[in-house]
TrEMBL record:
The keyword Signal applies. Residues 45-426 form the Glyoxal oxidase N-terminal domain. One of its GO terms (cellular component) is plant-type cell wall. CDD domains: E_set_GO_C. GO terms for molecular function: galactose oxidase activity. One of its GO terms (biological process) is cell-cell adhesion. Pfam families: Glyoxal_oxid_N, GO-like_E_set. Residues 435-541 form the Galactose oxidase-like Early set domain. This is Galactose oxidase-like Early set domain-containing protein. InterPro entries: Gal_Oxase/kelch_b-propeller, Gal_Oxidase_central_sf, Glyoxal_oxidase_N, GO-like_E_set, Ig-like_fold, Ig_E-set. Keywords: Signal. PANTHER family: GALACTOSE OXIDASE, SECRETED PROTEIN-RELATED.
Length: 542
């Protein structure tokens, strides 16, 4: 009898130990969901927040007829398709307006330019070399420049540069890069051998590379399972980083996601630059999925301090395995991992088992206690989903269409036309007395580099002056599980001080030192108090 009792206690001990470990890894869930619109008429495959608090979204022109008509009986030229494949969503009124894209924008890329225009490039078929421009207004629509690119760009990545141009890197069978706008009609298209080296035959695993602007003006480029630091001006690899220890692919179609972790500016310098890459699918998963065998997604993240002289990957384990997840920086310097599935890969009909619960990653906590599982949605967001941070701190979630046309019935994951908002726990009503509200500067204030900026804000509750920070967010272009141009800066500033007037405070910060750290353009400015961000205000770096 004694041995069996001892055996039972032994099992109970390990059972409670596992519970304890899980409790440490995954604290109580948070956040809430709401459906904003049951249908926006299209499936939001690509999305960009604009500086007037509208979000432009689009899918593709060859999905068939969408569920929203073009205005005034208009049809796309030379077609019988009178439906829209792009919409502009107005956050304030919770309404959409149909837009007309002329060429196929499927699996394209884009960048918000310094003047607030979305300049969007490439796509499929008649859209391969097209540049499209959208400047938002109540009656504005897409403008297109045929043959605006030197090379076909499909599944490429774009990034804004310190000189105000954008670089367009890679794409299917495009092992090169180019710029827009062009300096001259004869501007060349330099080759990028790194994209050849990271290309897995018949699978690729290096499309939509993860690209970040390093604070010295060079580019960090990650594709497949490894990365380089690249001087695009001289077409030269500055540094080759170690391959991720597990060697598993993280790029499309084994689609993981990545962020440049928040850049903390101290005395005009960013001392630590780190990248976090999470999720993906194991080697062989793409081939297997095409045979109907859906391998489990990766449950690991790799974090690397690329500013170290000898950078090394540190691997971490997520509470939920995920492929096709989106990683978003939040205003309080946390990372949100949202959308995706736990088996299969990106591609038509190739994903299974939606992951409905987002996860928050807190970069400054100790390894082992950085992840926190959040409350789940009820709507699967599988292949071709999007997620975009809004000015008020909510996350707009849309899209999901793993089919080569609109499919609304008799399929595992029907085409999803709805738009949801995920509200992180910092928006809970019990945090309202801690939430700052910015009084000054006023919206659309123009800000120079390396200047003192006085920020006046209110908080209704008790303020801890040492728990106040100021962050600036560059609004990214989101598609295929990557947010291009995503960048969060933590500004150098003193302790908040109370000033005249009830509940009114000010903090003085120094603006970013250069265009290498913060390229000119539109940013969202936030005051964060005890990890609770204010609503953002739009400012312009120039």
């Amino acid at each position: 009898m004694a041995p069996s009792t001892s055996h039972l206690y032994h099992h109970l001990f390990f059972f409670f130990l596992v519970l304890l470990l899980n409790a440490q890894q995954c604290p109580a869930a948070g956040g809430s969901w709401s459906v904003l619109l049951p249908s926006i008429g299209i499936s939001a495959m690509h999305a960009q927040l604009l500086p007037n608090d509208r979000v432009v979204m689009y899918d593709r022109t060859d999905f068939g007829v969408s569920n929203i008509s073009l205005p005034n009986g208009a049809c796309r030229p030379n077609t019988t398709d009178c439906s829209a494949h792009s919409v502009e969503y107005d956050v304030a009124s919770n309404t959409v307006r149909p837009l007309m894209v002329l060429s196929n924008v499927w699996c394209s890329s884009g960048t918000l330019m310094p003047d607030g225009r979305l300049v969007q490039t490439g796509g499929f078929d008649d859209g391969y070399r097209v540049v499209r421009i959208y400047k938002s207004c109540d009656s504005c629509d897409w403008q297109e420049i045929r043959n605006g690119l030197n090379q076909q760009r499909w599944y490429a990545t774009n990034h804004i540069l310190p000189d105000g141009r954008q670089i367009i890197i890679g794409g299917r069978r495009a092992f090169s890069y180019e710029f827009y706008p062009k300096m001259s009609a004869t501007e060349n298209t330099p080759s990028l051998p790194f994209l050849v080296q990271t290309n897995d035959p018949n699978v690729e695993n290096n499309l939509y590379p993860f690209v970040f602007l390093y604070p010295d003006g060079n580019l960090f480029i990650f594709a497949n399972n490894r990365a380089i630091l690249f001087d695009y001006s001289n077409n030269q690899v500055i540094k080759t980083y170690p391959t991720m220890p597990d060697g598993q692919p993280r790029s499309y179609p084994s689609t993981g996601s990545a962020v440049l972790l928040p850049l903390r500016i101290t005395k005009g310098t960013v001392n630590a630059v780190e990248v976090l890459v999470c999720g993906g699918a194991p080697k062989g998963a793409f081939v297997n999925a095409n045979k109907g065998i859906f391998d489990g997604a990766l449950d690991t993240c790799g974090r690397i301090k690329i500013s170290d002289p000898n950078p090394q990957w540190v691997m971490e384990t997520m509470p939920l395995a995920r492929v096709m997840g989106d990683m978003l920086l939040l205003p309080n310097a946390h990372v949100l991992i949202i959308n995706g599935v736990s088996a299969g890969v990106a591609g038509w009909e190739l994903g299974r088992n939606p992951v409905l619960s987002p996860v928050v990653y807190q970069p400054d906590k100790q390894v082992g206690s950085r992840f926190e599982v959040q409350n789940p949605s009820t709507i699967p967001r599988v292949y071709h989903s999007t997620a975009v941070l809004l000015r008020d701190g909510r996350v707009l979630v849309g899209g999901s269409n793993p089919h080569d046309k609109y499919e609304f019935g008799n399929v595992l994951y029907p085409t999803e036309l709805s738009l949801e908002a995920y509200s992180p726990s910092y928006l809970d009503s019990n945090s309202s007395d801690l939430r700052p509200k910015i009084i000054l500067p006023v919206k659309n204030t123009k800000i120079g580099y390396g200047k003192q900026l006085v920020i006046v804000f209110t908080v209704s509750g008790i303020v801890d002056p040492s728990s106040v920070s100021v962050t600036m967010m560059a609004p990214p272009f989101n598609t295929h599980s990557f947010s291009m141009n995503q960048r969060l800066l933590v500004l150098d500033g003193g302790v908040a001080a109370k000033i005249l007037g009830k509940s009114r405070y000010q903090v003085v910060v120094t603006t970013p030192p250069s265009g290498n750290v913060a390229p000119a353009g539109n940013y969202l400015l936030y005051v964060v108090h005890k990890e609770i961000p204010s609503p953002g205000i739009w400012v312009q770096m120039q």
